């Protein structure tokens, strides 16, 4: 089969799997698991084949026009360059892992068939986005992902948190999608085509009339999808969905789509240095803010969610300095280790019976219960913290190198201010990343207290997937050399200065966290000892802390999918000391939701009540007036209804006579004229 | 003879009948007025038939039919008036107001028998 | 308004209204009598007199038919209207216990409206008719048009089907009249004692 045919099959197979899964889900439950795994697996294999055949060579580009659509044609087209081929492999592999993992994770879920079908559809949509050479077709996949994320985040729709989270995810991403759509139209109007190759040709020829406007509009959509400041708020809340869905959304599909989209159309963004600066600012704010917020979170999945936001900030930062190779490289390695982190977190939650890091830190021996998750999570966290031999180090270094390159004025289009911004924010974030990775590891696996409950051995479908994903998390960085040829050809290997700086920052963050943790756990032990003695000598705060900790204890009951409150008291949390007075704000995501509530929700509510008032008091008056007027008129007319046939007949004949006279007069007048 | 004579006579007779229909109170007198109107029409038909010298004499034939229908009409009409009189005790047209707005049919039936 | 005066004023061409033929004089005279009888019919306070004046009016119309050479119709008019319809009406008056003598409430309250409508209708009709036909002349000479022979021929040559349909109608009217005027409940009638 030709490469084109194979490439067409890649998005098509999961789609067919999803359709079949939805159709057969109820009638033939036995087919659901094969239908979920096999098409995705086949798509992954085909994506690998396509990538091998493409081989980083010139882009494969074909287009068929299905039907003429007026001024700007919409084509079914494929555009597979090195980026597309590699991202498709990532999507296929992660989706397969997630599907396999889900068979075990959601073993007893009654809605598993529809869940699996939606995951397949999600995968298919992402693959469509990756392979599509036409922006309209890309948009189709983009929007299907939006609706799939809505359904999947709301999988546990019985809980209020999941319902509102799914609604929030949908609305916030849609908020970005509206300008995105307008931006696409503006772009197509300027370029005269929706096809990416033609658009890029137009950009290269300098034929774009409003580059800044278009870039900013598109950036809004990307910020929504890729969870960048200020539209990132949906992502932490999206943790209400099942953990494998989080892995899928965070690692391979939804959030990657935005970064991938910019990478594809980078020349369009590069045409406007203002857009690049905006992007750099957005990335810097996102990176640092999410790093701080991640340190303060108690829910393990929310920590990972903020970490995703931060890592996406790196990617967008790389794009802002004009190096899409580095961005996609980080996207790939991040996809691998973030999927691993989430799937591992799923295992931890299964084993510990809680989402709360504070609760885990009061639980001894969790690492021994789930050795596979412990080791793979350790690998993934090392990769996340960018410790040298692991994948994250190389990709993050690539970003930092690109930023440094731009900062020192070696880039041909990106302004050096953007470079400095990304570099400084990136280094700061490296510190923060290492800090929250260390905190997560320490609190989850080095807890002290009662032994963790024994839930038996985790199934192979879950642990096997973890080890599978651990391989790229460890070794993908070594691909930095050869993989550069697949991209624009820029160097991806780390330089000495940035590696020293980045690794140093990470080391500082990790050490600091460890030291603070030591202190915090010592204090916690002291406080809990004081709590057991019930002595007045322990002092007021300690007693309160003990009471709080006692109140918290029942949380360790079963897997809860809502977010427990930030723990206080004897939980050995280094984050508090690390952030100091910032902790409270960071835990709340810097009150961004409250700001949104002030800025948007309340005005909208006020406007709604105003409209309600207008409707009730003003519009309804007219409506009621229409009714009353008719009633009055009717009661007037009723009086004519005397029942006397003669008066009816008189009126009838009088009318007839009048009409006859009018006719006669008119006829005479007309005849006379 | 001028056609105007029978035509004007017919018009006046018709309007006389019209007045009678609208002004008379007794249903039988209303019927008489209807007969006057019908006869006015007949007169017109005959006059125009004679003027046009129609080969089929449609006017005269129609006049005969009208006369027959008038006979039938008067028969049915009188039967109805009789029945109304028997049920209501009156044949005054302006007292038969059961279709008036706000009329209560059940209460009226007995009260008007006495009239 | 007098029709003759109106017509005389309107006549300007053709055989003038100012030099009427003998038939015309007879027609106008009989017409005046007919109209007068009709007016009395609809205005008299004595109900039985109204029926008798109706006889005069209908008879006048029969004479007009004769003057228009439609003799068969004239005799049918006399037979059916004078012979049966008026008798039926008189029977009706008697069966509904119409008061004999003057009854002050013979006219309803609708009278003035009725008068207005009728006068306006008459004025407009006369105006239109005179306007349209003031010069039209009926030639009463020539072959006979309304004799019994001619009427019979056209009736049973060209109008057989409507004639037969009419007989069905008459039958239906007959049955209807019987059904309507029959007493349904003899006990109810004897209770009322209205007859």
Number of E-type strands of chain C: 0
State the strand order across the main sheet of chain A: 1-2
| CA-based gyration radius of chain C | 22 Å
CATH superfamily of the largest domain in chain C: NADH-ubiquinone/plastoquinone oxidoreductase chain 6, subunit NuoJ
Which overall shape of chain C is indicated by the principal axes computed on the Cα atoms? globular
Shape of chain A: globular
Q: Find the structural class of chain C using helix and strand composition.
A: mainly alpha
Helical residue percent band of chain A: over 70%
Question: Which structural class do the helices and strands of chain A define?
Answer: mainly alpha
Q: Kindly estimate the percentage of residues of chain A that lie in beta strands according to DSSP.
A: under 5%
Task: Describe the largest sheet of chain A.
Answer: 2 strands, antiparallel
- Whole-number radius of gyration of chain A? 31 Å
Number of strands of chain A: 4
Give the domain tally of chain C. 2
InterPro entries (chain B): NADH_UbQ_OxRdtase_chain4L/K, NUOK/Mnh_C1-like
Protein name (chain B): NADH-quinone oxidoreductase subunit K
Family (chain B): Belongs to the complex I subunit 4L family.
Organism (chain B): Streptomyces nojiriensis
Notes on the protein architecture:
- The complex is a heterotrimer of chains A (673), B (115) and C (195).
- By secondary structure, chain A is mainly α.
- Among the domains of chain A are: 272-582, no CATH class; 588-635; 642-673.
- In chain A, 74% of the residues lie in helices and 2% in strands.
- In chain A, the strands form 2 sheets. Chain A has a two-stranded antiparallel ribbon with strand order 1-2.
- In chain A, helix 10 (243-252) runs parallel beside helix 11 (254-264), helix 14 packs antiparallel against helix 20 and helix 19 (391-407) packs across helix 23.
- Chain B has one domain (13-93): Orthogonal Bundle (Helix Hairpins), CATH 1.10.287.3510.
- The longest helix of chain B has 31 residues, at 58-88.
- Chain B is mainly alpha-helical.
- Chain B has 4 helices and no strands.
- By secondary structure, chain C is mostly helical.
- Chain C has 2 domains: 3-141, Four Helix Bundle (Hemerythrin (Met), subunit A) (Up-down Bundle), CATH 1.20.120.1200; 147-185.
- In chain C, helix 3 packs antiparallel against helix 4.
- Chain C starts with a helix and ends with a helix.
- At the B-C interface, helix 1, helix 2 and helix 3 of B face helix 1, helix 2, helix 3, helix 4 and helix 5 of C.
């Amino acid at each position: 089969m030709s490469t084109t045919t194979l490439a067409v099959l890649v998005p098509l197979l999961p789609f067919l799997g999803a359709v079949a899964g939805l159709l057969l889900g109820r009638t033939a439950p036995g087919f659901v698991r094969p239908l979920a795994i096999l098409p995705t697996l086949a798509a992954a294999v085909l994506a690998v084949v396509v990538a091998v055949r493409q081989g980083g060579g010139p882009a494969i580009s074909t287009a068929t026009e299905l039907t003429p659509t007026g001024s700007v044609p919409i084509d079914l087209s494929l555009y597979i360059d090195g980026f597309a081929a590699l991202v498709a492999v990532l999507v296929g592999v992660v989706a397969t892992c997630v599907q396999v993992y889900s068979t075990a994770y959601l073993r007893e879920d009654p809605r598993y068939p529809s869940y699996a079908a939606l995951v397949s559809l999600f995968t298919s949509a992402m693959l469509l986005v990756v392979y599509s050479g036409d922006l309209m077709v890309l948009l189709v996949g983009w929007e299907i992902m939006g609706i799939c994320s809505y359904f999947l985040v709301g999988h546990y729709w019985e809980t209020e948190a999941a319902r509102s989270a799914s609604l929030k995810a949908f609305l916030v991403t849609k908020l970005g999608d509206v300008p995105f759509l307008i931006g696409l139209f503006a772009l197509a109007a300027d370029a005269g085509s929706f096809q990416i190759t033609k658009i890029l040709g137009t950009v290269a020829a300098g034929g774009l009339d409003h580059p800044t406007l278009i870039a900013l509009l598109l950036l809004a959509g990307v910020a929504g999808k890729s969870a960048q400041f200020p539209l990132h708020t949906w992502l932490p809340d999206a943790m209400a969905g099942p953990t494998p869905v989080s892995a899928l959304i965070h690692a391979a599909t939804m959030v990657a789509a935005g970064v991938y989209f910019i990478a594809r159309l980078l020349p369009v963004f590069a045409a406007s240095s203002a857009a690049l600066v905006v992007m750099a600012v957005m990335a810097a704010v996102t990176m640092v803010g999410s790093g701080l917020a991640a340190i303060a979170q108690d829910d393990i999945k929310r920590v990972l969610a903020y970490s995703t936001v931060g890592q996406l900030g790196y990617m967008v930062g790389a794009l802002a300095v004009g190096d899409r190779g580095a961005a996609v490289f980080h996207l790939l390695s991040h996809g691998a280790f973030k999927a691993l982190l989430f799937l591992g977190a799923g295992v931890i939650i299964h084993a510990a019976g809680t989402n709360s890091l504070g609760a885990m830190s009061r639980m001894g021996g969790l690492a021994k219960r789930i050795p596979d998750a412990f080791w793979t999570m350790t690998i993934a966290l090392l990769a996340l913290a960018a410790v040298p031999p692991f994948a994250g180090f190389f990709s993050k270094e690539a970003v930092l190198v690109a930023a440094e390159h731009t900062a020192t004025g070696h880039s041909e289009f990106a302004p050096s201010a953007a470079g400095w911004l990304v570099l400084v924010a990136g280094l700061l974030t490296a510190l923060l990343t290492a800090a929250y990775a260390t905190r997560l590891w320490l609190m989850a696996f080095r807890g002290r207290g009662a032994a963790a409950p024994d839930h038996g051995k985790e199934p192979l479908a879950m642990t096997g997937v973890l080890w599978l994903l651990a391989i790229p998390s460890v070794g993908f960085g070594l691909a930095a050399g050869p993989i550069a040829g697949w991209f624009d050809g820029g160097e991806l290997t780390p330089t000495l200065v940035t590696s020293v700086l980045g690794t140093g920052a990470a080391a500082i963050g990790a050490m600091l966290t460890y030291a603070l943790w030591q202190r915090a756990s010592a204090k916690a032990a002291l406080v809990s000892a004081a709590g057991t003695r019930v002595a007045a000598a322990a002092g007021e705060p300690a007693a309160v802390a003990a009471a709080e900790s006692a109140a918290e204890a029942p949380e360790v009951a079963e897997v809860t999918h809502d977010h427990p409150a930030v723990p206080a008291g004897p939980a050995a949390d280094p984050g508090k000391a690390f952030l100091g007075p910032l902790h409270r704000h960071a835990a709340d995501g810097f009150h961004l939701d409250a700001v949104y509530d002030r800025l948007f929700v309340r005005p909208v509510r006020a406007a709604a009540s105003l409209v309600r008032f207008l409707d009730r008091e003003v519009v309804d008056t007219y409506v009621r007036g229409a009714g009353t007027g008719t009633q009055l008129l009717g009661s007037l007319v009723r009086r004519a209804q005397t029942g006397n046939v003669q008066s009816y007949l008189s009126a009838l004949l009088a009318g007839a006579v009048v009409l006859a006279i009018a006719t006669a007069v008119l006829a005479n007048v007309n005849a006379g004229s | 003879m001028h056609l105007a004579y029978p035509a004007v006579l017919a018009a006046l007779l018709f309007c006389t009948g019209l007045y009678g229909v609208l002004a008379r109170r007794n249903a039988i007198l209303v019927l008489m007025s209807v007969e006057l109107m019908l006869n006015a029409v007949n007169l017109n038909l005959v006059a125009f038939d004679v003027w046009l010298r129609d080969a089929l004499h449609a006017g005269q034939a129609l006049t005969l039919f009208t006369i027959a229908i008038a006979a039938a009409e008067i028969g049915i009409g009188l039967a109805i008036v009789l029945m109304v009189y028997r049920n209501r005790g009156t044949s005054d047209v302006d007292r038969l107001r059961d279709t008036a707005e706000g009329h209560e049919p059940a209460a009226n039936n007995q009260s008007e028998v006495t009239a | 308004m007098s029709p003759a005066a109106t017509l005389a004023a309107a006549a300007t061409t053709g055989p003038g209204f100012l030099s009427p033929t003998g038939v015309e004089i007879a027609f106008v005279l009989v017409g005046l009598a007919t109209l007068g009888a009709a007016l009395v019919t609809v205005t008299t306070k004595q109900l039985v007199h109204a029926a008798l004046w109706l006889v005069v009016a209908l008879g006048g119309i029969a004479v007009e038919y004769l003057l228009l050479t439609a003799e068969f119709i004239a005799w049918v008019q006399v037979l059916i209207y004078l012979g049966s319809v008026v008798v039926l009406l008189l029977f009706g008056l008697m069966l509904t216990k119409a008061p004999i003598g003057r009854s002050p409430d013979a006219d309803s309250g609708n009278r003035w409206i009725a008068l207005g409508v009728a006068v306006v209708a008459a004025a407009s009709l006369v105006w239109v008719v005179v306007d349209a036909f003031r010069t039209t002349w009926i030639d009463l000479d020539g072959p006979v048009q309304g004799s019994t022979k001619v009427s019979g021929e056209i009736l049973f040559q060209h109008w057989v089907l409507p004639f037969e349909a009419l007989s069905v109608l008459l039958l239906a009217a007959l049955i209807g009249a019987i059904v309507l005027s029959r007493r349904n409940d003899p006990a109810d009638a004897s209770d009322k004692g209205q007859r």
